[in-house]
Specification:
Strands 1, 2, 3, 4, 7, 8, 9 and 10 form an 8-stranded mixed beta sheet that branches. Strands 5-6 form a two-stranded parallel sheet. Strand 1, helix 2 and strand 2 form a beta-alpha-beta unit. The chain is of the alpha/beta class. 53% of the residues lie in helices and 18% in strands. It has a single domain, classed as D-Maltodextrin-Binding Protein, domain 2 (3-Layer(aba) Sandwich), CATH 3.40.190.170. The protein is built from 13 helices and 10 strands.
Length: 337
């Protein structure tokens, strides 16, 4: 009887011990992925990423969790990429400017006046997606999901009726955006180099009086509160993607890698639909707040489009290869048929 009592006591103690430590074991076995993005909390991008994070945690039974740093908490995209390389972050959801700090070829999709419609972009990106994803893998990253920012418009506080007016503006020029630097130089615009987090305060102080971006970005980042005009016709399409450091990816089990792939595919599809719809809403909201989207005069449009197309060849060998540019042009021509 005494032996039985002792045995029961030992078994009870063991059961109590595992009850107490099992949550710690589960926690210790989970992997928290630290991700950064410029997307503000509450934006369309942030909501989609939070939903994806919840799906991943549920489908992996808590083995994989995402921790997002929204609204540029980790700095501009150059800072974020540097922190990923230093293993201070595991990955990020960045624009193509951030992607170009890892591998620049993808920016061929953002050249001025390359695409006319969403459909054209989608067809070319889908055709070349695997090539770009392989490039990032070779560079030590896994591209989990593509994302959209939207059609890029020029926004100003002064009326612009021609190229000369445009050259007089104090236009923001993203520090790491080689396409914008080349384009603005051809247009005679002396851009003010700033990171994205510095745009709003610079609009407020008058350091700049013009910027560029999608309507959704202008609303999410509050730029629209400090501008009066927008070009009705966009100059390019801005894209992005969610990337994860391969070193972190390799820590995941094959099962969890599959789950991340599947949920990321849903995220990319959801983001595309949501962002495009919200860009339309954002433009209407901007117009309602007083921002005027003005038609670009025909002569000015022909002029800036000519300079924009000249950038295509100018950046060959600096950002992408001649072969890749020709491949995009050929794929686009086929899509237009």
């Amino acid at each position: 009887m005494m032996r039985r009592s002792i045995l029961l006591l030992v078994l009870s103690a063991c059961a109590l011990f595992w009850t107490l430590v099992s949550p710690r074991v589960a926690s210790a076995n989970s992997l928290e992925l630290k991700m950064a993005t410029l997307a503000p909390k509450g934006s369309a991008w942030a909501k989609a990423m939070e939903k994806n994070a919840k799906d991943v945690e549920e489908k992996t039974a808590g083995r994989v969790k995402f921790k997002y740093f929204f609204g540029g908490q980790q700095g501009d995209e150059r800072d974020v990429v540097r922190k990923i390389k230093l293993s201070q972050l595991d990955g990020a959801a960045v624009t193509a400017v951030g992607l170009s700090l890892i591998k620049g070829d993808v920016r061929v999709l953002e050249l001025p006046f390359m695409f006319r419609t969403d459909r054209e972009l989608d067809l070319v990106r889908d055709k070349l997606a695997k090539d770009f994803e392989k490039q990032f893998e070779d560079a030590g990253y896994v591209l989990l999901a593509w994302g959209d920012v939207g059609w890029v418009h020029l926004f100003t506080n002064v009326s612009v009726g021609g190229r000369a007016d445009l050259a007089k503006t104090k236009m923001w020029a993203w520090t790491d955006d080689i396409i914008v630097r080349s384009f603005f130089k051809r247009l005679g615009i002396n851009g003010v180099p700033l990171g994205v987090p510095d745009v709003l305060p610079s609009l407020q102080t008058g350091l700049i009086n013009a910027c560029y971006g999608s309507p959704l970005a202008a609303v999410a980042l509050q730029w629209y509160t400090k501008i009066k005009y927008g070009t009705s016709l966009p100059v390019s399409y801005s894209i992005g993607a969610m990337v994860l450091k391969k070193e972190t990816w390799n820590k995941l089990s094959p099962e969890d890698q599959k789950i991340l792939r599947e949920t990321a595919s849903v995220l990319g599809s959801d983001l595309m639909k949501l962002v495009r719809k919200d860009n339309e809403r954002a433009r209407k909201a901007m117009e309602k707040s007083g921002v005027q989207f003005v038609q670009v005069p025909a002569a000015m449009l022909a002029d800036i489009e000519k300079e924009g197309r000249a950038v295509w060849d100018e950046l060959v060998g600096k950002l992408y290869s001649k072969e890749l540019l020709e491949k995009v042009k050929k794929t686009l021509a086929e899509a237009r048929k």
